[in-house]
Amino acid sequence: MTAAFEEGERNYSPVQLTGFVEMCERPARERPRQLSRAEIKDLTRREFLVYKEQRAVWHANIGPIKTAQLLELHDGLAEIVESNRQDGDKVKPSAVVDAFPGLGKTTAVLDYVKKYHRDQILVHGATTPSGHRRVPVVNITLTGNITIRGLNEAICRFYELPESGNADQLAARAARSARAMCTTIIVVDDIHFLDLRRTNHRVVANHFKHLSTVFPVTFIYVGVGVEARGVLTDGLDDEDVDLAQAARRMTTLTLPPFTVDTEVGRAQWRKLMLTIERLLVLGDAYRGMLAEDLSDYLYARSTGHFASLMTLIGRGCRRAVDSGEERLTVDLMDTVKNDVAAERGRLELQAAIEAGTLTTKPRRKKKGPGRRP
Fold first, then answer.
1. 94-98 and 185-189: which strand pairing?
2. Between the CA of residue 163 and those of 16, 41, 149, 255, what are the distances in Å?
3. Does the pTM exceed 0.85?
4. Judging by beta carbons within 10 Å of its beta carbon (0-12, 13-18, 19+), is residue 218 exposed, middle or buried?
5. CA-CA distance, 277 to 260, in Å (whole number)?
6. Smallest Cα–Cα separation from 12: which of 56, 61, 70?
7. N or C: which end of the chain has fewer CB within 10 A?
């Protein structure tokens, strides 16, 4: 047994260059050693606490899992980014990842740009031809009271540049750094805070259009209900929507929830359950614990939203460890609380499952004639 707890949470900030690089380049965590229930009982008190810590951190950081939805989103992002090789006198089209909360949009986009960052460094080197540090990706997050100066300041903060000066000075400073450091992607998360029904936010949106002409990058915007807030239509009324520049410069991608009303959807859910099963470190876990015994239950409890599912499983694992049960069961999971949205949405799904009108289980394939049973 490991003598000391080697690693806890990695408390980096992905909206600052140092933290973002650490997120991209730090080695993946090692899965904690698999011990049986008997072996766990033989641990000393300290050894048990160390093992508990290791498993808690591991279970809290499972993923991202390469689901069909995530892979499709990555393919869409790659199509946009890798074809954006326009010269500096042309505006590069942007990507908008617009989906419901709790589906892992931010995680999926960060997973894509982490690989993109590593690949760019591998191909072009860690420094630019002029000797600057190469920074392929900038990652920022908007706030509810975003201003032009605040936006420019966030980009400068990521680059670890001085944050003094007015909005124009900050924008010029950031643009020079983007060129010098060969930045090719800027991720803007929480773009839904930009509500173009508000005059001051339309000013910020127009500034984004300006930045897209002076930064030689592909912008990737991530948010909830982006189209409904007018971001894709410049806040124009329906009769004037054809005049919107944003609609011609942006391509919308999404990350849908898991659905089980088709055989394909049920197969994808089962594959997810089997994948998560293999990643859990519980002393009495077994194949089929999720995919067979808890599949319908977990779908109802999470309403098919990945973030809600992983929250529920992570908390369930903590309770399984503390109780000594070392496996996930319906009785144990019934004692675990989940997020408000999932708890509100579970009743209808649970009723349908109990009535037999909904299931996550794929249909068993019939054996052909002449095959042995």
1. unpaired
2. 13, 55, 10, 35
3. yes
4. buried
5. 19
6. 61
7. C
In this predicted model, what pLDDT tens digit does every residue of 223-252 receive, in sequence order? 998 877 766 665 444 444 443 566 677 899
Q: Which residue blocks in 305-368 are alpha helix, DSSP H? A: 306-323, 330-333, 340-355
The gap between the terminal CA atoms of the chain, to the nearest Å, is 46
Write the pLDDT tens digit of every residue in 272-327: 999 999 999 999 999 999 999 999 999 999 999 999 999 999 999 999 999 999 99
Q: At 98, is the secondary structure helix, strand, or coil?
A: strand
- C-alpha to C-alpha distance for 225 and 122, rounded to whole angstroms: 36
Look at 31-45, 46-60, 307-321, 334-348 and tell me which has the smallest mean pLDDT.
Answer: 334-348
Rounded-to-5 percentages of helix, strand, coil across the chain = 50, 5, 45
Sheet architecture: strand order including 185-189? 137-141, 185-189, 218-223, 94-98, 250-253
Write out the H or E segment, with its range, that includes residue 64: none
Distance CA(83)–CA(184), nearest Å, equals 12
Is 59:146 a contact under the CB 8 Å cutoff? no
- For 103-140, give the DSSP string: S-HHHHHHHHHHHHHHHHHHHH-SB-TTSPBP--EEEE
Burial class (CB in 10 A: 0-12, 13-18, 19+), 256: middle
Q: Is 98 exposed, middle or buried (0-12, 13-18, 19+ CB in 10 A)?
A: buried
Q: What are the Cα distances from residue 177, in Å, to 161, 174, 222?
A: 9, 5, 23
